[in-house]
Amino acid sequence: MPPALHMPARFVSPGSHPAGAALIGVFDSGVGGLSVLRALQRALPDAAWLYVADCAHAPYGERSTAYVVERSTRIAQHLFEQGCSGLVVACNTATAIAIDTLRERWPQHPVVGVEPGLKPAVVATRNGRIGVLATPATLASTRYRSLIAAQPARFHIVNRPCPDLAGLIEQGESAEAALSHAIASHCTVLRQEEVDTVVLGCTHYAFVRQAIAAQMGNDVHIVDTADAVAQQAVRRFVGLPVHPEAHGSTLVPTQADSQTLRRMAGAWLTDGHEVKKPVVL
Fold it and tell me: Of 61, 93, 127, 187, which residue is most buried, by most CB within 10 angstroms?
């Protein structure tokens, strides 16, 4: 586990200051962004977090571009209206499709996104063959194509669209058998391509990292970008204003059935988080 990063003193701990802490918004199509939120909590222990899990509209990877932009814009507006002064788009699909729109609409707020970790994969690979597991929408996006084009031509990148994985992970234990079958199927293709490095191109996939690693074998390196996102947040969120009532981590689903969110949050997040009643956005 990498050591926790620490913010400058302008991030005020709610436990040591009556005025609260910097409030930062985070959203994903569902539970996947909790893998990013965990890294953010470690990197910025003095910040407060408001996380929207858009479970009612998950997964984004199977939605149209217009739909993802509309959902991302609506949720970002809600988070800023709640007093958030920074935003983390903890969803690869939403980052690939909508982050430019969000930055243009709210230039006064720093917005951090996530993208498949091709740069660290290029450093890690030994044979130059890299597999990317991601949603079809992420792989088809202009942003991802630009990321591919920026990598040296000598590397062979195998893009594996996974239209099923995020949705199965959202379903939780009820989809365990189908999820195992899907992971095996996708990893079989990557093994046939002889990749030695696999990029997790969706924040949901961190929850099944061990299963993917087991399928790929001990010699294959798995790249997850949650810690890199947290380091970028450290750089971008310096000096955010303190929200007088902000503390801890608050999770808000957009559908009534939040059992998966509660279960995953309990397993992944630090103590002190609270799951609120669903909101309609």
Answer: 93
